[in-house]
Design goal:
Blueprint: H1 12-19, H2 23-31, E1 39-40, E2 46-47, H3 50-64, H4 69-77, H5 85-96, E3 104-106, H6 108-115, H7 121-129, E4 133-135, E5 140-142, H8 144-153, H9 160-192, H10 198-234
Amino acid sequence: MTTDTEEPALTVDELAARAGVTVRTVRFYSTKGLLPPPVIGPRRVGQYGQEHLARLALIEELQHQGMTLSAIERYLQQLPPGLSAHDLAIHRAVVASWAPDAAEDVTREELERRAGRPLGEEELDRLAAMSVISRTPDSLRVDPALLRLGVQLLDVPIAQEAILAARTVLLEHSRAAARELSELLRATVREGESVTSVAAVKSLSAHMQPLVVQALLTTFQRSLKEELREWLKES
């Protein structure tokens, strides 16, 4: 696993502080194979990158979902090798989507602490356009599952108008897919039972949601790569 060259390397103490865990926890995860080993730098000091930080955030989210360390280990083993911090942040967002809405009210200082960088008014506007935050009269409301990914996207050279347009496209198509999948789930329950049961629909949805979200993510990534490939051919 390579480290992001855009960000300075972190010592184990800095990594633990940024991730909000103890150094002991970092070393424990490393011995369990949940974290890849650091790059050995000058003076034989271990150097950690943004992928380590993103993986720690993913582990934390999986724990919030109630997964045991053994289950987390199996989950991480199934991920493709060499994922970047950006890819891991997407996986974390997918995992967090399994849970109910967990938006939090935070101060500007707390938001910047979690983001790991100062945030100007223009950057706050971009985060709001991506639905990562929303403004209230007294504070900022943040979606923790999207924050890390949103902060990474701040450095992508795209206009806010384009972000809003992309968000509209994604919402329209995702809602259409959700409606069709809901109809499919209801039809499945009706075929198996003489009377449609609300409890049965909820149970089936709870089991299917993680699989459906992961399938949608994978399908979208592949479709986007194909579209970009075709676009580059035409350029």
